[in-house]
Amino acid sequence: QDPACLWPRALGRAAPRAPASLVLHAGPRADQREVQEAMDSKPAGQQVSGVDSMGILPPHPKAPTPTHARISIASVWGVVGVILLLGNGLKRCLPEALQPFSKGLTPLGWVAYAVSVLFFAYAEGYRGFQQRFSPLVVRRSLLLDMRSPAPRQLLAPAYAMAFFHATRKRKIVSWALILGIAAVVALVKRLPYPHRAILDGGVCVGLSWGMGATAAIYLRSICTGRAPNADPCLPEP
Predict the structure, then answer these.
(1) Other C-beta atoms within 10 Å of 11: how many?
(2) pLDDT for the residue numbered 237
(3) Where are the extended beta strands (E) located within the chain?
(4) Pick from 67, 111, 131, 169: most CB atoms within 10 A?
């Protein structure tokens, strides 16, 4: 039974269904039993707070608006460009990360290598890329189409990473992240073997995770027709 219709059955006939337009735009529906109990406990004629006369909750003011995901050349370029950027970093780190498999490590060194891989897989790959960076990149890429300004289409990877046309806070975070990564890479290059190899092993796992997460989220969005639930951090109009 549709909870949008809570008419008494004492009338001896099926309760009419609410108009489709009302059901579609009324927002999330309240649990029928909870709504009925709350309405029964109120005096006659008094409405339950937060629930209309038909037992339907209004839309949550902070609920994200569903966004349709449609493939476009600009969105593909944005996602692919970011993946290529991550792949370039992976290409630079991979030779050093594979050295322990040819040169060898002490037992303690292998433990450190494993810890580095697990740490970067969780902190950089899962928390950093899959949970934050990759959904943002895909969400902003899907905002691009043939009607978008030419600079945003041409610089789609930079736009997807929120280097421009984003809130001030998001731009600061994005630029600080890139500059911080560059500084860390410069410092790691100065480390001798095996310390550099141990760190590069973890970095390679994190970058690989980020590339896979970005591609998977984009493909899922295109297949389902729904963009990821991430704030695109667009500036105020």
Answers:
(1) 8
(2) 76
(3) none
(4) 67
* Range 197-229 burial, b when 16+ CB lie within 10 A, else e: bbbbbbbbbbbbbbbbbbbebbeebbeeeebbe
Q: Which residue has the tokens 């997460």?
A: 213
Give buried/exposed letters for 56-78 (b at 16+ CB in 10 A, else e). Answer: beeeeeeeeeebebeebebbebb
The encoded tokens of residue 17 equal 């269904």
Q: What are phi and psi of 99, to 5 degrees?
A: -60, -40
Longest dimension (CA), the chain: 85
Under 8 Å between Cβ of 134 and 213: yes
pTM here is 0.70
Asked if 22 and 55 touch (Cβ cutoff 8 Å), the reply is no
